[in-house]
MptD family putative ECF transporter S component
Amino acid sequence: MEAESSRPASGRWTTRDILTFVVFNLIIVFVTMAAKMIEDMLLAPQNTFFVGSWLFPLLSTPFYVVMADRIGKQGVLAASILVFGVLYTFMGGLYCAPVAVVGAIVGELVMWGKGSYHDIKRIVGGYIVYWVTFGFYGIMPYLLFREAYMEQLGTYYEAADVAAMVAQYTELPWILLMMAMFAAGTLVGGLIGSKFLKKHVRKAKIA
């Protein structure tokens, strides 16, 4: 309670909030990208679907939980969604920008209300929106330019891998499974993050 009362009452982000946001999002991006690289080295493309969908949020959510609670102000989730959206946009996925904007708006609506960024359940629930948005970065190319995208994939992957990837990102049962795995990984990561937050960060009064 003392740690929370030491925070400024204003809803404006401080320099410390911005620094916290930058550092933690750099960690999240690094962890996610590193996990993706290792996954690609070890698994066939059609099998990464069954690992990354829960592993990425599991690894990232603990960092997000601590960051969201430490900043504790509106805009944390929206800004986090936009970070990945901008990153993927600059990597060539121009369609990611509007997806990120929609995700950011939905995310902040989910987090609307006083104290939402100090409520672990709200934080974790909001972060599921982050990963659903992330999932749509993979879905959108098949919806917008399926044939051209499949042809591009065919230059890198075997036909069986391409066929599996198309099914995973276009057929509803597979999409729902992906979203469920995103949610499961986020929930487990949130549990880890909440325990660390309560036992170490808040106990140490790190504001």
About this structure: Residues 14-201 form one domain. Residues 1-9 have pLDDT under 50 and may be disordered.
